[in-house]
């Protein structure tokens, strides 16, 4: 009865190159996702140099001319909107 049981390990084929590539690609993708989630959760303090740089372009944008306002149809004089009979 003991001779009927086969306790040898099952034969598993060696993984192919594409299976290995897929496995390690999935590992790298998971690590990348964890890094992205941690970047959202953990705040990174900004240095004083990084704060000084964005203020310069804002001052350059200030002298822009404001856009000209287009008169709307509701603000036309009454004479233009009335029909002539």
TrEMBL record:
The keyword Membrane belongs to this UniProt entry's keyword annotation: yes
Biased composition (Basic and acidic residues): 48-64
Alphabetical keyword list: Membrane, Transmembrane, Transmembrane helix
Membrane association type: Single-pass membrane protein
GO cellular component: membrane
Localization in the cell: Membrane
Any one Pfam family match given in the protein's UniProt record, by short name: UPF0239
Tree of life domain: Eukaryota
Region described as Disordered: spans on this chain: 48-85
Biased composition (Basic residues): 75-85
Positions of transmembrane segments: 24-44
Family as reported in the entry's similarity comment: Belongs to the UPF0239 family.
Protein name listed in UniProt: Mannosidase, beta A, lysosomal-like
Biological source species: Jaculus jaculus (Lesser Egyptian jerboa)
